[in-house]
C-alpha cells in the first residue's frame, strides 16, 4: 500500500458556454483535473472524486518538485488503498469558481479583459456536476463505476445520481447532507459577512489593488474550522492548555493569545487567508447553501431520488455536528423509500466533520470493502461484455434464467438488442422489472412452448442450465426457438473443485457457492461432457471458452476456467452457411 | 403576577481603587445598580442577580419614559414571579467594564483625561464579584438570601460561593459551566478577531475618531448568536425559509440575503453593533475565557468548592450546546463530593442556551419552588431572630435539642454568644459540626447531669420538649443548669389542629408534620397546659407568645399561633430581682 507517486495536473478547455442554474452562462472555461490508475478497455472502471470546500483536483500523489504536496485524499486513493488505483481509474476535478486552476474569479473575464472578481457567476452543485459530466464526455467515460465525495463532495455525488442516473453505477456520499440546516447557513453567512465587510475586499475587485481581504478570510476560516472539529476532540487536543505553558503558567490579561486553541485557530486562519481566494469562498459557501435537491419536489427527498439507478454507500461520523449522522440518515431513508440498494455506515470516530479526511480503521475498511464489491461488479461486467461480443448488433434475444436482468439490460444498452428474459424467482422478476427489461415469469422446466420456432436470433442460457433436471430436453427447446445460443455453466472440472473432491468434499467456490445439501445445481458437466451433449442435440459448437475472473483462459482451459461458455449454432444453419 | 413597574437605576461611586486579579487596579469607579422590593429589618431577604454577556443592572421593570424598556429578566423577577419581589429585595448590578453605565472602556480615564478604550484593565469574574461585594457592604447587606445568575451570571454566583462563603445562603447557577471548553474559547476568539481586525477598531481608540467597529461587532454577534440557539430551534424557526418567500420563491444568486436566517442574524448583528461597545465585548469574552475556579486546585473543582457554605440550585437545558447539561453536572458532581445541599434540574427545553432567559413552565416552576424554600428559610430565620431578641448579648447558652445548629450559630454570629448544643441524632450532630458550633451528642432523656448548676445564662429548648417522655423532669433539669430558659413547642391548640380533631383525625400540619403512628412528639400541650407546668417546676413565665409563620400573634394567640414560645426565669432569681 503506497502512494500513487508523482502526478501531474491536466487542463481541459471548453469553448462552448455552460448554461448555469442561475440563468447566467460561463463561456471559454477550463477544468483542471488529475487521473490515477488506468482506464480499462470498456471504460467501466472510472471513479470520479468530487472535492469539498477548500480542496481541489489534486486528490492523491504528489507533484514532482514538491515531495510534501500530497493530495487531500492521499490516504484513501492509491495502489492498494481503499480506492485502489491498481483496479480503478480515478479522476479528481477542480470545480468551476475555485482558486486552484479551474476557471474562477481570479481569472480574466474574456468579455472585459479584467478579473471576474465578484462578477463571477454564482455556481451551484448542479452546475459543477454538469461541467464534470462534460469532462467525462471528453474522457470518453459514459458511465462511472462510482462517483464519490465527502461533505460538499458528497452533495455532488448525490446530484450526479439524480441528474445522470445512468452515468454512475455507485454513488458514495460521506459526511454529507441532503441540504444545509439553518445553523449551517448561519455559519456560512457569518463567514461571508466577515469577508464582505473587510474593507480590503473592495467589492470583490481586490486583485488589481494588490490587496487581499485577509482579515475577513481569516475570521471566515476560523469559524468554519470550529465546525469541522468535534467538541470532544477539541477538548482533548487543546482543552484549556495555555500557549507556552512551560514558560509561564498564567493568563496574560490582554487580547493576545492565552490559549493554545487560539493560537491554533489563528494560525489556521492566517495560513488559509494566504492561499485561498475570498471570492471563491463566497461562491462555495453559496453553493453549499443552495444545494437542496428535494426543493423542486416540495421538500420530498424520496421523490427527488425517484429516478436514480445507482447503488449507494452513505457514511457518517458520530461526532460530526456540522453534518450529523441524522442528516445522512435522511438520505438513507429517502433511498430506502425508493428501495434503492444502499449501505449505510455510522462510524464512531472522535474527529467531527473532519473525520472524513482522516485515517480511521472502521471507516477505511468500509470504503475498501465497498470498492471491492464494485470491483467484483466490474468482473461481472467483463463477463457480460465478453459474452455480448458474440451477440450481433440489434439482435432479438431471449435470456433464459435472466436473473436480475443485468445481461439483457447490457445488451439493450450496448448493442441495441431487443427481447425478453425468462425467470422463475419472484425477487429476480422484480429486479429485472426495476432494471427496465421485459421479463416473463415462467418455469423453464415446463419448456419454452410459449415461444415460436426460430423466434430469436440468440438464446442465452447463462449459468442456469446446470439447475435443470432435464438438461437435454431444455437444450432442444433452446435449439428450437433460437438460431444461435450462448450457454454457460460452472465448469465442474475447474481445479479448485477437483482439489476439494480430492479432500473428500463436495466443491464450494465462487461459481459453485452452495454446499452439497442446498445446491440448486442439479447437474454437473465438464466442458468435454457438454460439448458431446450439444452436438447430440443438433448444435454445432462455434466457439467455447473457459473464463476465469471474466477473462478467457487459453492454457489448460478445462483445468483453469471456472466458468465454461459455449457459442452454438443450429446445425442446419451451419450447413446452409 | 405583574411587572415591578417603573424602576430607576442608581449609581454608587467608589473612590478607593479596586485591586484586580491581573495585578492592575481601577480607581475612582462607579457601579450602576437597581433594586426591587423591600429589604427586611434583618437584611436577610436580599437577592443579587448577576448578568451575562450583553445584559446589565436593568433586570426587571421598565423606565418611566420607556414603556418598552423591560428588564432582561422581567419574566423571572417581579411581584408574584419566581423571584418574588413581594418577599425578596432584589439587586441588579452592572459589572465593571460594561457599556451600560458602570465604569467601562468608554469612560474617561482620570489619569489621562481620555477614554480608557483598550487600556481599560482586563477584568475577571472574580473582580466583578469583589466589586459586587463592596456594593453589598455599602447597602448594608452582610449575607444574601441568594446570589443568582445565568450563563456568565452563573459563573459569578459560583464565584460568590467560593470567595465569600458566609455571605450567601443560596447560590443559583443556571445554564452555566465551571469553565469554558476549547470550543467555547474558540468561538470567543473568532469574535475577538473580527473586532480586533476591523480597521474601525483603531486599536481600541475609536471613540475620539467618531467611528465604531460595527462590522467586527456585527460578525462577533452573529457567531455568538448562533451558539445561543439550538440547532433544532433554528431549524424550526427558520429552516430553509427564503426571505420574502411570498414574493418570489427562488434563489437570488448573489451574496445578498436569500434565507430568513441570514436576514435575522444580520439584523441581530446590526442592532447589536449599534448599542454595544467593542472594547466591552473583548473584555467580557476574556472574563468568560479566564473563569476556571478549579485552576488553582490542579483542576480539581471539588477542592475549589471545599470551603463553600451555600446551598445550591443548578439548572441546565437539554438543547444548550454552548454550556451543555454535562457542564452543569460537573458543578453538581463537585458539590456532591463536598456533600453540599444541591438541587439539580435538567430542563428539556428546545431553545438552546437562550432558554435561561425564556419562559418555560418547568424551568420557572423549579426556580419558583426553590425561592419558596428560600422564603421558608427566611421565615425560620425570623423565628430565630424573634427568639434571639430574648437572649442577652454575649450570653453563654445551652441549646438542648440543637438540631442543625442554626439557632446557636445565629446567636454566635448576631449576638456574640458562646455555648453548646445538645443533640442525639447522628445527622444533626454532623450538620451542627459542619456549621461550626460545639455540639455534645447526648440523649436528653438521660438528664443534663454533665452540666453544672447555673452553668448557662440561657437554656434553649426549642421544639424538642414535646419529644420527651418525662417533660416535667426535663424541665426541672433546665431549671437547674440555666438562669433563664426559652422553650417552644407546637401549640396543640393551634386551630388547624383543632379542625382536624373535629374531623376525627390526629392533626397534621407544618409544625406537627407527622401522622399519629410515626410521630416523635410524645406529649402535646396547649399554651395554658404548659404555663401551669412551668410554674409548678419553679419557673416564672416572663413572656409567652404564639408565632404564626415567624410573626407573633396577639389576637387569640392560643387559637392562631402554630408555635408557642415561653421565656422563663428561675423563681428565686425573679424574687431576688
Explained architecture:
The structure is a homodimer of 577-residue chains. With 577 residues, chain A is of the alpha/beta class. Chain A starts with 9 loop residues before the first strand and ends with a helix. In chain A, the strands form 5 sheets. Chain A has an 8-stranded mixed β-sheet, sandwiched between helices. An 8-stranded mixed β-sheet of chain A has the order 17-16-15-18-19-22-20-21, sandwiched between helices. A two-stranded antiparallel sheet of chain A has the order 2-3. Chain A is 34% helix and 19% strand. Mean pLDDT of chain A is 87; it is low at 493-524. In chain A, helix 11 links the parallel strand 15 and strand 16. Chain A is built from 17 helices and 22 strands. At the A-B interface, helix 3, helix 4, helix 5, helix 6 and helix 7 of A face helix 3, helix 4, helix 5, helix 6 and helix 7 of B.
Write the layout of secondary structure elements.
The structure is a homodimer of 577-residue chains.
Chain A: E1 10-14, E2 18-19, E3 25-26, E4 29-36, E5 46-50, E6 77-78, E7 83-84, E8 89-93, E9 108-109, E10 114-115, H1 125-138, E11 146-150, H2 152-163, E12 170-174, H3 182-196, H4 214-228, H5 231-237, H6 260-275, H7 278-290, H8 301-304, E13 311-317, H9 325-337, E14 342-347, H10 361-388, E15 396-400, H11 406-415, E16 418-423, H12 426-435, E17 439-441, E18 456-462, H13 471-481, E19 482-490, H14 495-502, H15 527-536, E20 539-548, E21 551-553, H16 557-560, E22 563-570, H17 571-576
Helix pairs in contact in A: 1-2, 3-4, 3-7, 4-6
